[in-house]
Amino acid sequence: MHRISIFTVLFFSVILATLHGLATYFSWYFFIWWSDIPMHILGGFLVGTTALFVYLQLCFKGFAQESRVTAWWFLCAGLLFVGVAWEYFEYSKGLTFNTIGSYHLDVLKDVLMDLFGGFLAGAYFLRNKLQ
């Protein structure tokens, strides 16, 4: 498994924060209906990378053994937790609006894009490194 440094996590955090800031400032989320899709993929990649970073820290400290299966479970649990929490946050703050389709389909699409981004992170960082 690749070693993931805190700088890798911070790098992806800065990229996501910058793009989100630009999208908010220029109202891309409002004018470009699909602009949240790449943001959810990037967010999923960031959460997946962070989950793997935490998992590797737990392994390093002796709280877990390195295992590809356990790493994937940890990644999926982190993705689902953060993805659903983010959707709840948006709903509770009134940040949801949908001009095409239904709200429930939008939430499902957002969570699936989060998972896709996280699986990309898992595929990148976990390839051929664990049994």
Topology, please?
Elements: H1 6-25, H2 28-31, H3 36-60, H4 68-92, H5 103-126
Structural commentary:
By secondary structure, the chain is an all-alpha fold. It has one domain (6-126). Helices cover 75% and strands 0% of the residues. Helix 3 crosses helix 5.
Feature tags:
5 helices, 0% strand, 131 residues, mainly alpha, single chain, 75% helix
Helix content: over 70%
| SSE-based structural type | mainly alpha
Rg calc:
16 Å
Number of strands: 0
Q: What's the domain count?
A: 1
Q: Largest beta sheet, briefly?
A: none
**Number of H- or I-type helical stretches:** 5
User: What's the pLDDT, averaged over the residues?
Assistant: 89
Question: What best-fitting shape do the alpha-carbon axes yield?
Answer: elongated
**Topology order in helix (H) and strand (E) letters:** HHHHH
Distance between the termini: 10 Å
Uncertain parts? none
Proportion of residues in β-strands: under 5%
